[in-house]
Specification:
The protein is mainly alpha-helical. The protein has one domain (2-87). Helix content is 72%, strand content 0%. Helix 1 packs across helix 4.
């Protein structure tokens, strides 16, 4: 949870201070590619429309954690069911 709350410091504040750009963004610019041509996401660049950039970063991180936990739960449940079927035979 602490890392989730600290992530905007590294992903937003320090990235702006240091002038950091994602390597794929740099390559796309060099190749003159328009980002909307090859990617689409509702939370582009870890932002939530209408919210400050730092808060959007935290929300995107929380959503990512929830997706991983939910996926793990589904896998655990699926494996747990399969395991109990084999053990009862």
């Amino acid at each position: 949870m602490t890392l989730l709350l600290l992530s905007p410091i590294f992903g937003v504040i320090l990235a702006e201070e240091l002038g950091y750009h994602e390597p794929l963004d740099i390559v796309a610019e060099e190749l003159k590619l328009n980002e909307s041509e090859f990617t689409w996401t509702p939370l582009k660049d870890y932002t939530v429309p209408g919210l400050p950039e730092w808060l959007g970063y935290i929300i995107c991180g929380a959503l990512g954690v929830l997706v991983i936990v939910f996926t793990g739960y589904i896998i655990k449940t699926a494996l747990g069911r399969g395991k109990s079927e084999f053990s009862s035979s």
